[in-house]
Amino acid sequence: MITFYLDEDLSPKIAVILRKKGVEAVSAHEVGMVAASDREQLELAAREKRCLVTRNRNDFIRLTQQFLNDRRPHRGVLIVPYSLPGDQFGRIARRLQTYASQHSSGLAPYQVDFLPSQIKPNFS
């Protein structure tokens, strides 16, 4: 099952909504990591075997490459696009819930993916 660690650039309200929907999620705000560096955020997510969720695309793509080169643990990074407004907590949580249901085994190590801003219809 995929579990999420939300970077400090996302509201902790999203983690609360996700947990109410049965998705395992924790926020940097909830674990006292608001002032931590991006590297520390990714290290904590990896230690806890969580996919890091962030809006900070460039820094975490660069860090993912560094973690790969150094063979450091990494459980994937999921980028929330700016087309999903940060104050739409429920909308972001629904997208994350859908993503979690479609990726139940989690992301591959060092994988970077982008959260769809629209839910695609399932015609199967």
Note the topology.
Layout: E1 4-6, H1 12-20, E2 25-27, H2 38-47, E3 51-54, H3 57-70, E4 77-79, H4 89-102, E5 112-114
Parallel strand pairs: 1-2, 1-3, 3-4, 4-5
CATH class descriptor = Alpha Beta
Uncertain stretches of 5 or more adjacent residues: none
Q: What is the CATH topology assignment?
A: Rossmann fold
- Helical content, roughly? 25-40%
Helix count equals 4
Form type: globular
Architecture overview:
There is one protein chain. The protein contains 4 helices and 5 strands, in the order βαβαβαβαβ. The protein is 38% helix and 13% strand. The mean pLDDT is 93. It is α/β, with parallel strands linked by helices. It has a single domain, classed as Rossmann fold (3-Layer(aba) Sandwich), CATH 3.40.50.
Keywords:
five-stranded parallel sheet; Rossmann fold; globular; single chain
Summarize, please.
38% of the residues lie in helices and 13% in strands. It is of the alpha/beta class.
